[in-house]
From TrEMBL:
Pfam families: ThuA (PF06283). Gene3D superfamilies: 3.40.50.880. Residues 19-215 form the ThuA-like domain. InterPro entries: Class_I_gatase-like, ThuA-like. This is ThuA domain-containing protein.
Amino acid sequence: MTRALILSGAGRYADPWHPFAQTSACLAEILTGCGVSVTIATDVDAAMTLLDGVDLLVVNAGDPSRNDLPVPDLSAARAGFAAALERGIAVLGTHTAAASLTDYPEWESVLGGRWSPERSMHPPIGPARITLHADRHPVVAGLGDFDTVDERYSHLRVAADVVPLAAHTLDEVEHPLLWARTAGSSRVVYSALGHDARAYESAELRELLARATRWLTGR
């Protein structure tokens, strides 16, 4: 059976704004529905040393640089992550993943984007119209635009090769919210949606993440 490990924000990866335990449970439900065996880990750095046999790494964690907690010795964690990428582990990043794993130098190039403290922002959480580019990838093929209530990340630093699959428009500028790519041997999907459990009540978001899971795991 395909195995997934969800890195859920806790300790130095927690923040006051995102209920990571709740959203990780929502993600686990979606992945389980795709026939994936799921483990949730709350010690993010320790879990990076336990990636052998894991097929899909899900990052649902916050920005550790915002906390004053001590940084552990990360040599084994960095080596474990690098080895997993070398063998082609699939990666799903959700919402705050764009601001996370700041102590793992390759993370931004793998994910394809980063929250930039100097320019990234989001309007207040509220109703949002999400535009899908259904002709660009199997994850969104045949799906239509939808409305949701979520936090809309804007002005992310995005790699030049990223092809947006979903976006929102703010001040007449389209901002990517979902993309799929390949980094080395790894398939990667990033979804900027999913601030809280209410966001995961969206049937459309759940379908997007289920499709992403199936694409990432070759199901």
